[in-house]
């Protein structure tokens, strides 16, 4: 029933919708037909202002008839629109050709309202029309430049590169005044002219530099590069770089912030050698590379010729190293200054300042292979600095060493005997050590900074590990010299100890003269070394450890040479050993107003080594009868299964060869069997320092009672 009632209404609704669509389509058709007629007429009369608006409307209306293209009349209108568009394109190009002829040096035409409206029409036409207009206009605008700066012209060479940039500045000002309103703002014509000028200049400079490569000098090259990068910086301030989206120049990514000390105000880095003119006050400030989308748009052409710059830096650094060597010889070693610690050689700072300057300068020129070449130069002269300035100036040790007798030791006055190295030489070694440490740390920072500057693909090729190892060797050699010096100063005292007649010692007294001599040398050297290494405490600790590792085994070896030894002599040696042990434990802070606890690693070495010396003397003091008890006591105290050591103990006791033979046989029998899988050495626990200290106190009380 409802369908029957609404059947007529539904038909009327369909009729109304169809009628509305028909009327709308007929109206569009009327508009399209009239628009096409008007478009053709206006095109003939070059009424581009009206055409620009009308053409867009006609194109929009034509889109409604896409589904009616099967109708001949509609298809015909569509073809007429396309024909009108083609005619407009050709006509506009002809108008621009007439106004700005490509032939001839003078522009006969000029800006006009007709051409301005034609540009608006070109926005609606095929994009190729707009590109053709831009291309022809820019080519015509730069035609004079190609004539003025031909390869055979004097102004084309690098020394007059400023004239190129002055010319384009004038042209851009001239364009803004004459043609600034002719082209739509979104075309960015001023920037396009500048970019095309850069491409042309880059090609022309590349060609002329290939031809005259032998005439390129480093100052000339850097002058041209500086002027070019200044110009690129000027472009970055003036333009946004929106026309560079074609990938010709890729805008670099902004690197993350760095805490590296090399990262200072790079824009303020001075480049004195690139200044060829006396007055250069109008030079714009060099922009930071990451903020400049135009970076390299011209200056990239200089990259193949940067070998001239690299060779120059090689020569300059060679001369710098030679000057450092000459200055050191002329001025001598740095004056001792124990108040401020070991001074770093000033030449070191000069070298790395020059390195930074070169690195910043080169990274502004290129981040590719030239940076790798510069890194190789850096490596070369870091090694030369390490060997010529640092290692080359370390004091030389002499093989001759004087001997001390008991008489000379007894007559020795405090301070009358100096160490092998003078105060100045000790300070020099500490200064070289501090300098090497500074170079080591700064070289690591230099490597990190170089990796930041270079292209990502080349980062793996930057490796200064070898140079850092070289400075580590200098540090190690310096410490070894300090150790050898103090060690050698103590040698005569130890020799005198081994030559004393210990079997004739009748009573135990204060510490022996040789102990006083050793302590004197320690007090002379260690405070100087500590104060001069105040800024590098870890290397002072290394010095202490190396000295302990050298002196204690040497002391024990000389102890074995003291033979034969009486009971009283052994007690005197034990007292001397304890005195040396206390001095060695206090060695890191000896003579210092500020008492610091010695490093645990050092204390462990001293306690272990000197406790062994004390145990040797205790075994010597023990009676050798009965032999079994003596052998067991030896094994317990020394935990040493070496027959050589046991033989030396027997020699110190002064036993006859026949007695020694039976003792050795018994020793071999009494040795405990090594554990399965062991190396055959005994692993007996040594007495603790507290236990040894208690035993020494008991010994001192015993000595006092006897006295």
**Terminal residue distance:** 144 Å
Record field, number of beta strands: 0
Mean pLDDT: 78
Overall geometric form: elongated
Major pleated sheet: none
Radius of gyration: 46 Å
Describe this structure in words.
- The protein is mainly α.
- Helix content is 65%, strand content 0%.
- The chain has 23 helices and no strands.
- It has helices spanning 2-45, 48-62, 72-99, 113-124, 127-141, 143-148, 161-179, 189-211, 218-238, 307-331, 346-365, 369-390, 406-411, 423-453, 465-499, 513-532, 537-560, 567-585, 600-621, 627-638, 643-653, 657-670, 689-706.
- The longest helix has 44 residues, at 2-45.
- The termini are far apart.
- The relative contact order is 0.04.
- Residues 246-290, 399-419 and 677-687 have low confidence and may be disordered.
SSE topology:
Blueprint: H1 2-45, H2 48-62, H3 72-99, H4 113-124, H5 127-141, H6 143-148, H7 161-179, H8 189-211, H9 218-238, H10 307-331, H11 346-365, H12 369-390, H13 406-411, H14 423-453, H15 465-499, H16 513-532, H17 537-560, H18 567-585, H19 600-621, H20 627-638, H21 643-653, H22 657-670, H23 689-706
Helix pairs in contact: 1-2, 1-3, 2-4, 3-4, 3-5, 7-8, 10-12, 11-12, 11-14, 12-14, 12-15, 14-15, 14-16, 15-16, 15-17, 17-19, 18-19, 18-23, 19-20, 19-21, 20-22, 21-22
């Amino acid at each position: 029933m409802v369908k029957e009632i609404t059947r007529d209404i539904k038909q009327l609704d369909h009729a109304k919708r169809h009628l509305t669509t028909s009327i709308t389509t007929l109206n569009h058709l009327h508009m399209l037909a009239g628009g096409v007629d008007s478009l053709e007429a206006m095109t003939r009369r070059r009424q581009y202002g009206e055409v620009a608006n009308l053409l867009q409307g006609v194109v929009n209306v034509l889109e409604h008839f896409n589904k009616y293209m099967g109708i001949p009349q509609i298809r015909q209108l569509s073809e007429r629109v396309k024909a009108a568009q083609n005619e407009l394109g050709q006509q506009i190009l002809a108008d621009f050709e007439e106004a700005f002829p490509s032939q001839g040096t003078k522009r006969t035409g000029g800006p006009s309202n007709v051409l301005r409206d034609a540009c608006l029409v070109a926005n609606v036409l095929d994009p190729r029309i707009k590109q053709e207009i831009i291309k022809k206009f820019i080519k015509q605008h730069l035609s004079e430049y190609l004539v003025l700066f031909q390869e055979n012209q004097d102004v084309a060479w690098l020394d007059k590169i400023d004239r190129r940039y002055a010319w384009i500045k004038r042209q851009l000002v001239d364009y803004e005044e004459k043609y600034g309103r002719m082209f739509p703002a979104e075309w960015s014509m001023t920037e396009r002219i500048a970019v095309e000028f850069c491409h042309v200049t880059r090609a022309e400079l590349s060609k002329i530099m290939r031809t005259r490569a032998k005439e390129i000098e480093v100052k000339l090259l850097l002058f041209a590069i500086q002027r070019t990068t200044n110009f690129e910086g000027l472009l970055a301030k003036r333009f946004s770089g929106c026309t560079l989206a074609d990938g010709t120049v890729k805008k670099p990514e902004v690197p993350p912030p760095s805490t590296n000390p090399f990262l200072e105000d790079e824009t303020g880095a001075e480049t004195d050698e690139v200044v060829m003119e006396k007055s250069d006050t109008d030079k714009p400030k060099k922009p930071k590379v990451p903020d400049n989308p135009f970076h390299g748009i011209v200056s990239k052409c200089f990259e193949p010729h940067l070998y001239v710059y690299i060779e120059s830096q090689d020569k300059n650094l060679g001369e710098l190293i030679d000057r450092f060597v000459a200055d050191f010889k002329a001025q001598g070693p740095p004056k001792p200054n124990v108040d401020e610690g070991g001074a770093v050689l000033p030449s070191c700072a000069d070298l790395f300042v020059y390195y930074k300057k070169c690195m910043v300068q080169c990274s502004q020129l290129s981040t590719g292979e030239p940076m790798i070449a510069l890194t190789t130069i850096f490596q070369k002269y870091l090694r030369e600095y390490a060997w010529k300035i640092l290692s080359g100036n370390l004091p030389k040790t002499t093989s001759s060493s004087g001997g001390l007798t008991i008489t000379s030791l007894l007559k020795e006055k405090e301070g009358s005997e100096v160490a092998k190295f003078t105060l100045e030489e000790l300070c020099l070694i500490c200064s070289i050590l501090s300098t090497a440490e500074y170079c080591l740390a700064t070289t690591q920072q230099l490597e990190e900074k170089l990796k930041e500057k270079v292209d990502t693909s080349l980062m793996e090729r930057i490796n200064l590990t070898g140079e850092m190892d070289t400075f580590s060797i200098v540090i190690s050699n310096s410490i070894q010299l300090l150790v050898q010096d103090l060690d050698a100063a103590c040698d005569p005292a130890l020799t005198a100890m081994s030559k004393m007649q210990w079997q004739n010692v009748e009573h135990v007294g204060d510490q022996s003269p040789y102990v006083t001599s050793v302590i004197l040398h320690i007090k002379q050297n260690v405070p100087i070394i500590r104060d001069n290494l105040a800024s590098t405490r870890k290397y002072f600790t290394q010095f202490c450890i190396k000295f302990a590792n050298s002196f204690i085994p040497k002391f024990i070896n000389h102890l074995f040479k003291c033979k034969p030894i009486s009971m009283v002599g052994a007690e005197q040696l034990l007292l001397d050993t304890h005195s040396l042990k206390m001095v060695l434990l206090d060695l890191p802070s000896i003579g210092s107003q500020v008492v610091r606890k010695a490093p645990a690693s050092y204390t462990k070495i001293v306690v272990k080594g000197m406790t062994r010396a004390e145990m040797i003397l205790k075994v010597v003091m023990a009676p050798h009868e009965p032999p079994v008890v003596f052998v067991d006591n030896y094994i317990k105290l020394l935990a040493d299964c070496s027959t050589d050591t046991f033989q030396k103990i027997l020699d110190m006791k002064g036993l006859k060869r026949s007695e020694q033979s039976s003792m050795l046989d018994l020793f071999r029998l009494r040795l405990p069997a090594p554990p399965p899988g062991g190396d055959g050495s005994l692993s007996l626990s040594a007495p603790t320092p507290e236990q040894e200290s208690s035993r020494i106190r008991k010994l001192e009380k015993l000595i006092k009672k006897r006295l």
